[in-house]
Every structure is written in C-alpha cells, then in structure tokens.
Design goal:
The structure holds two protein chains of two kinds. Helix content of chain A is 36%, strand content 26%. Chain A is of the alpha+beta class. Chain A starts with 7 loop residues before the first strand and ends with a helix. The longest helix of chain B has 36 residues. The chains are: A alpha+beta, B mainly alpha. Chain B: This is Neuroguidin. Chain B: One of its GO terms (cellular component) is small-subunit processome. Chain B: It comes from Adiantum capillus-veneris (Maidenhair fern).
C-alpha cells in the first residue's frame, strides 16, 4: 500500500461558543489514496493550526468518509481549558481522550440486583441487605 | 342701541392678559340692555312666549349678577398685580378665558338677534366659530388631565376652604398624580353572567367568524393541485420550460455513465441530510426507511446504475491494445454502462480497475492488467481462462 501521504485539514463554519467556553467547527479532511485519517493525527494537526497550548482540550468526532473516498467530514471542538472540557463534554468523549475512565458495570450483577430488589417493597432495599439475601438464598 | 361688547369681542384671545380681559363697564351696560330688551318684548310678543322669554332673561340677569359679584373683587386683585402671568397662562386659565369669551360672544349674538339686526356676515359669528374651534382643540388635553383635576378637586373639597386658587402645574410632587393600577376597570364585565342563561363571549376585539368551511371535495381538490404542482416542479421538462421562459443561462451538467433519477434524488437527499447534520453539529444514524432505500439502490442493476463508473474504466480498453487484439475489437463508444458490460463480456481477459467502494457489500477486486480474467455473471465464454477471482455481488 502507498505510504501515508500528507492530508489536508480544512475547517468550516467556525463559531466561538462562549456559553460552553469552546470553539466549534466542521472539519474537512482531504486524504487522497488513504483510507482515513486517525483521530489522534487530526488532533495534532488542529492543535498546530489553532495554536492551542493543551492538545488535550481538542476533541474530534463524527467523521464520515464521503462516497468514493478521499474526503471525510467531521466535527471538532477546542475548549479553553481542560476544566471546562471536563465540565461540558459527554463522558464517552472524555474517555476517548483519556481524561476519564470507564466504570465497568457488570451487566449480570446489575440484573441480579434488580431482580432481588423486586421482591422487597419500600426503603429496605439496601445493598448490604441484598447481598446477604443473595447469600442466604444460595 | 349701541353694542358696547364689540370692542372686547374684536380682540383676539391669545394676546389678552388677564387684566384687560373683562371690563366692568360692558357687563353693567349689558345688564341694562337686557332690561330694555325685556321691556320691549313684553310689549310685542304672545303671552306664553313672553313668559318663557321673561323667565330665560331673568335667569340670564341673575347669572350676570353672579358673575359680576365674583368678577369685581377678582379684577381688583388683578389690577393690584397679585396674579402674575409672566410664565404665560396655564391650561385651566386659558380654558376659563375661552369659555368666558364664548359666553360673551353668545350674549352679543342674542342681543343682535333681539334687536332685529342682521347677523349675516357679522364678525361675531367668526368669533364664535373661532372660539369653538379652540375649545374643541383643547378637549383632548382635558381628557388627559381629567385624573389630575379630579384628584385636585377632591383635595380641595377635602381641605377646609381657605386654599387659594392654585395652579395645578406647580404642585411639588407630580408623582402623586401617577396612574393607579388598582383602580383599573376590567374590560370583561362580569355582571352580565347572571342575567340570562346564555353565555355571551366578551367582545374585546373584533373577530372574523368564517362560516364557510372548505368542503371535503374542495379540500381534496386543493391537495391534488398542490401535489401536481410539486410533481411538476420536479420534472425536468417543466424545469427546462421555466428556465427558457425566464431566460436563465443554460446549464450543462456532465454525465459520466448512466444517471438514474432515483440515484440523483437519493444523493441530493443525503446531501441535504449532511447539511443539516453540520448545522446541528451532531451525527444522526440512518432511519429504517433510508436504509432500505439505499440498499435498494445499491443492488446490482445494470452495472449499479453508474455508481461504479470510473474514467479509468472508460479509457483502459483504449490503452491496453494488446488485450483487445485477442478478443473482438469493440468499436463502440465507452459511454453507457451497457456497452461496458458488453465490452467485458467480449474481452474477458481485459481487466478493469474497480475502485474499492466503502460501505458496499460487493467486493470487486482491484487488480492490475496482468492477473487472470474476471468472470462476470454466468460466463459462457471459452475465453474464460484460469481461476476466477472471487467476485461476489
């Protein structure tokens, strides 16, 4: 396969969103001959383009390659600082950027807990009690 | 009998100051005249008329006496200079003046009539009209000041009488006369509820009651017309006609391969969708209907309706002369996809490059010219040599 050619990054519909302390825009990436550009690479390029001090406050998402290849379009956000990013960004994007960690919730455990709670009525549905009950049942 | 009110009547009210407004002499003389007139009428007129007239004239004389009694001390004061009008007249003063002039003029007019003089084209008529006009003009101000004046009167009657005649504009705190929203009267009169059993809506604003409801067939007619209009706007013939009529410059769109109407419509819809996504700054997954439509369009029909057409394909058979020599040389133009398929079937050895399309289920191998031939469809050709590279549709 041809080695990674350089890609062109253009931004459109630029807007400064003061309410959410960020700058938002539509990103157009031209990458002829390549499948698509990774998000990390795009983040780097945007950080250089907009001269941001902290590349961790750049978020990109929603990239779709156009029919025929060679061009993809997506969205980009640059927050003023990481604190406002942590405040306003949805969890999954923070996890993608490495600013938050995913809480592993076992689906089975949750379902079991719910089924146990169905049998008790009122405020007595405390977790410790549930575990105990579960234990007793077994 | 001379008319002594004339010199007063002829002066314009705007230029008068309070001092020269009313003279003592004309009032007294006017009263004397009245008495004379009374005597005269008693001689000439009928008994009922006479009695009435006498009564009316008597009223007038008493009125005049009253006015005189009030006016004389007032005039004294004015002569002394107690009431200064350096700042001009206030609204109420001017209104009083005007009313007084009007009364004067009326009295003079009656006098003339009583004497039997002709009143046609007499300057007093003009005077009357003028004053009447002024009074009409200042009536709206009266309305506006109504609230303030009421309040002042209440104050005046409330406070035991020694208050002098204050000018309303020199009250220290004008905010006392601000409107009181608690005293607002509701537009909707609740009293009419209990009168009769029928509910009558309050008539606040004029409304139109349209009696004519559009009947069902008319509605369907209108809808059909709208539909026809929409369909016509989409058809290419109508568009051509319209652009011709308007004199628009001719648009020449390049057609590469076969252009299907559905495909173009679907593409324009997808584009519109992408535009909206950009505006909303969010990605929305395709709905079921949209997915079904796209799937239907991507099915292989007639070379995928030109979706896979590529310029390279069109010229590749021109470039690779070697391959062409083996099979039959195609002399047709490489325009339609139909001819393309024909070319393929005739020269199976010639390989065309198909671009790898993302999202398509069909995986058409992208090969160079030296690899073995592709079999398309059910190959009945003997030229089909070698292994067929997996080509799934």
């Amino acid at each position: 396969m041809a080695d990674l050619k350089n890609c062109t990054v253009r931004t459109r519909k630029f807007m400064t969103n003061r309410l959410l302390a960020r700058r938002q825009f539509v990103v157009d990436v031209l990458h002829p001959g390549r499948a698509n550009v990774s998000k990390a690479e795009l983040k780097e390029k945007l950080a250089k383009l907009y001269e941001v001090r902290d590349p961790q406050s750049v978020f990109v998402f929603g990239f779709r390659t156009q029919f025929g290849g060679g061009k993809s379009t997506g969205f980009g956000l640059i927050y003023d600082n990481v604190e406002s990013a942590k405040k306003y960004e949805p969890k999954y994007r923070l996890i993608r950027n490495g600013l938050a960690t995913k809480v592993e919730k076992s689906r089975k455990q949750m379902k079991e807990r719910k089924n146990r709670a169905k049998k008790i009525r009122g405020v007595k549905k405390s977790k410790a009690g549930d575990v105990q009950k579960g234990g007793k049942k077994k | 009998m001379q008319c002594v009110c004339a010199p007063v009547a002829s002066s314009a009210p705007a230029h008068l100051l309070l001092g020269t407004a009313v003279e003592k002499r004309p009032v007294r003389r006017g009263k004397r005249k009245m008495a004379n007139v009374e005597a005269e009428f008693q001689e000439h007129s009928s008994p009922t008329d006479e009695a009435e007239l006498v009564k009316v004239l008597g009223d007038m004389t008493t009125g005049l006496e009253e006015v005189q009694s009030k006016l004389v001390p007032f005039l004294e004061k004015v002569k002394k200079g107690e009431y200064s009008s350096n700042n001009g007249l206030s609204y109420l003063d001017s209104k009083h003046l005007l009313l007084l002039f009007y009364c004067q003029s009326i009295v003079f007019y009656i006098l003339l009539k009583a004497n039997g003089r002709s009143v046609v084209n007499h300057p007093v008529i003009a005077r009357l009209i003028e004053i009447r006009l002024y009074l009409e003009k200042i009536r709206p101000i009266d309305k506006k000041l109504h609230y303030q004046i009421e309040k002042l009167l209440k104050l005046a009657t409330g406070v035991s009488g020694g208050a002098e005649r204050n000018e309303p504009t020199t009250v220290p705190d004008d905010l006392l006369y601000k409107p009181n929203p608690d005293m607002l009267v509701a537009k909707i009169d609740e009293s009419n509820m209990g009168k009769d059993a029928v509910y009558r809506p309050p008539m606040i604003a004029p409304t139109v009651m349209d009696d004519d409801r559009i009947s069902r067939d008319k509605k369907s007619d209108i809808r059909a017309r709208k539909d026809a209009l929409r369909k016509a706007s989409r058809s290419s013939l109508v568009k051509e006609l319209a652009s011709e009529l308007e004199g628009r410059p001719e648009e020449v769109k390049e057609f590469i391969g076969h252009e299907s109407k559905e495909m173009t419509r679907e593409l324009s819809r997808l584009e519109a969708r992408a535009q909206q996504e950009e505006n909303l700054f969010a990605r929305v997954p395709l709905s079921r209907v949209e997915k079904k439509r796209l799937k239907h369009l991507k099915q292989s029909r007639n070379g995928l309706m030109g979706m896979l057409d590529d310029f390279d394909d069109d010229i590749s058979y021109l470039v690779d002369v070697e391959e062409n020599k083996r099979g039959r040389v195609s002399s047709r133009e490489p325009d339609s996809s139909l001819s393309q398929v024909d070319v393929h079937l005739r020269n199976p050895k010639k390989l065309t490059k198909f671009k790898k399309q993302k999202g398509l289920q069909s995986k058409i191998a992208c090969l160079g010219s030296t690899t073995p031939p592709i079999s398309i469809g059910q190959g009945h050709r003997e030229d089909n040599r070698g292994t067929s590279v997996g080509c799934h549709y």
